[in-house]
Design brief:
It is a single chain. The protein has five helices and eleven strands, in the order E-H-E-E-H-E-E-E-E-H-H-H-E-E-E-E. It is α+β, with helices and mostly antiparallel strands. Strands 1-2-3-7-6-5-4 form a seven-stranded mixed beta sheet, sandwiched between helices. Strands 8-9-10-11 form a four-stranded antiparallel beta sheet, with no helix packed on it.
Length: 238
């Protein structure tokens, strides 16, 4: 397999790097293909949420991985968090936060994994606020976002580090990925809420399971595992 980041297609503006990477995957592009952009007009996160990033402010990339590991979402989160520094925390399932200890925490990066298991490939999309000026964001987002506080020209350096971290994380055994993830768990021991159909449930986060699900203890003492594909944390648990 080719090294991650090669070939590398960069766009000054694109609808979605994930969409382009999926098209390339369908066309037979090799493992490690990287799509990046200075700006996205249709950037998105989980559950169709819009990803807002002024031009040149963020690292916007998508990586094509063939034969992806079962814990790909956790691998990606560990790699991105490492790039964001020792203070970065991971909020299950796909957010990287800064300022957790000071509160309120701000989201510095989001990860969107999209897979096609029958064809044995997956796309890892990352939006990382490298040089974001928080004052440029809509007022409702300013208190919920964070930035690395670097210059736009430093995005290339951050990208190189991120690709290196992905390379390293993909070689680690599942047990080590789980350990690294748990050290950065932003929800561990906290009261959270989540949706169950039309109802809202609540409980205490207990960390992630060996399969990457979120373990929670309900108020009645019973425990269950939440799947990122089936539920989402409510605002009360954010």
């Amino acid at each position: 397999m080719s090294q991650l980041g090669s070939p590398h297609l960069h766009f000054s503006s694109i609808g979605s790097t994930n969409d382009r990477a999926r098209e390339l995957a369908d066309a037979g592009a090799p493992h490690g293909t990287l799509v990046s952009a200075d700006e996205q007009s249709s950037g998105r996160g989980r559950q169709g949420r819009e990803w807002v990033a002024p031009p040149g402010s963020s690292l916007l990339i998508s990586l094509l991985l063939r034969e992806p590991p079962p814990l790909l979402a956790l691998v990606a989160a560990v790699a991105v968090a490492e790039v964001c520094g020792p203070a970065a925390k991971i909020k299950w399932p796909n957010d990287i936060l800064l300022g957790v200890e000071e509160a309120p925490a701000g989201k510095v990066a989001g990860i969107l994994c999209e897979a096609r298991p029958q064809e044995n490939w997956a796309i890892v999309g990352v939006g990382l606020n490298v040089a974001l000026d928080l004052a440029q964001l809509p007022s409702e987002l300013r208190g919920r976002a964070a930035t690395l506080g670097l210059r736009s020209q430093q995005r290339a350096q951050v990208l190189e580090r991120l690709v290196d971290q992905f390379e390293q994380a993909l070689t680690l055994p599942d047990e080590e990925i789980l350990t690294l993830w748990q050290r950065r768990d932003a929800l561990l021991g906290k009261e959270i809420g989540w949706s169950e159909g039309e109802l809202v449930a609540s409980g205490t986060a207990l960390g992630v399971s060996a399969s990457g699900s979120l373990r929670v203890r309900r108020e009645d003492g019973s425990e269950l595992e939440l799947s990122a594909g089936e539920v989402h944390l409510t605002a009360a648990g954010s």
